[in-house]
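Support request, please re-run this one:
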Amino acid sequence: MNTAPTNNEDVSQAAAQTTPIIPKTASEALRPEAGTPPPAKRSRASRSQIIVFMNFLVSCVMLAVIAAGAAVYFGRQEFFGQGPSANGDTFLVKQNSGVQDIADQLERRGLISDARIFRLGVRAYANDQALKAGEYEIKPRASMREIMDLLKSGKSVMYSLTIPEGLTVQQAFQRVATAEALTGDMPASQPPEGSLATDTLRFTRGATRQQMVDKLLADQKELVEEIWKRRSTDLPLANIDEFVTLASIVEKETGRSDERSRVAAVFLNRLGKGMRLQSDPTIIYGLFGGKGKPGDRPIYQSDIDKQTPYNTYQINGLPPTPIANPGRASLEAVANPSKTKDLYFVADGNGGHVFAETLDDHNQNVVRYRALMKKQAEEAAKAGNATQPAANGAAATGTDTVQ
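Re-run finished. Output below.
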C-alpha cells in the first residue's frame, strides 16, 4: 500500500524535476567557487562625520601655524621697530634683576611698548643671563633690540667726582658727601690734610663714598712718593711730609702753571737762608682751618699779627701740616724748582706775580702794585662798581713787609 509524500518532500522533488541540469565544461568545473562576500559598506552619514572632523582638525592646525607666524612677524617688527620714548631716559638695572623684572620696569617707564615681546626677544637671543647691572642712557626711540644690546654691553652711565687742586680735606669730603650718585656713609674720621689726590674720578651709580675716599688716598700716596723719588738733591726739606706741606703752600699761592716752579724757588730759597716764609694762605688756614676763609672777608693787619701754629709771618720754617691738597704740578714744582735767587714776589694785578731778589726791588714792585690797585679802584668807582680790588692781603702774596 503506497503512502502519499509530505508537502516538503513533494516540493523538493518537484523542484528537482523542474530545474534543468546545465552541463559544465572541464575548465568551468576547475574554477574556484566565489568566496564569502565583503561586509556591507558604512553609511554615507558615518563617512561624512569623520571627514568633517579631520577637515576641522587640519583647519585648526593651519590657523594655529598662520597665527604663530603672524605673531612672530609682528613681534619681530615690534622688537626691532622704534620705541615709544620720544625723549629717552636713564634706566637702572639692579643687581640680580631677572629679565621679567627688567621688562616690566621698562614698560612702566614707557621705554618699551610690550614687556612680553621684550622678554621673548631676549630669550630668543639667549641673553637671559647676559643683561648686566648698571645705569644706562636709553636714547630716544630706542628699539627693544637696541635696549637689549645696551644692557648686555654693560656700558653704564659714568659720573664724575672732581677734587680741584687746593681744596682742603674737609672741603673735599664735602664734595664726596654731596655726590648724589654715590652710596653709603662717609668715613668716620678725616685723613690728614694734604693726603687726598686732586683728580677727577669716574664711577657708576652705586659706588660707595668709602671707595672714593680710599681711591683718593691711594692715588695721592702713590703720586707723592713717585715725585719725591725724583726730587732735586739739594732741597732744604727734612722729609716727605715737609715736601707735601710746602707744595700745599705753593698750590694756594698761585694758580698759574708757568710760575709755580718760581714761587717754589722763592720759598725754598727763604728756607735755605732761615727766613720766614710770610705766606698769606698760611694765615688763612691758621684762622679758619679746613673750612676755608669766606670769600668776602679780607686779611687784616691784626690777622698777620695773630699767633697761630700756621702763621708763617710769626713762626719760623714750615707750618706743622699741609694747608690743602696739592696737585701734581705743585708737587713737581717743589721737587724740581727753578734755579733762581728770588726771595720775594708780589701780585702784578693781572693774575700773576712779579719776582725780586732784593728787598729794594721788591718794595718798588709793591709800590707799582699799589698804584695799579688805586687806579683800578678809582675807575671802578667812576663806573659805579661797588666791588673794589683788595689792596693788600692775599693779592700781595710774598708780602711787602718782609723783614
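Confidence is low (pLDDT under 50) at residues 386-397, 399-403. DSSP finds 14 helices and six strands in the chain.
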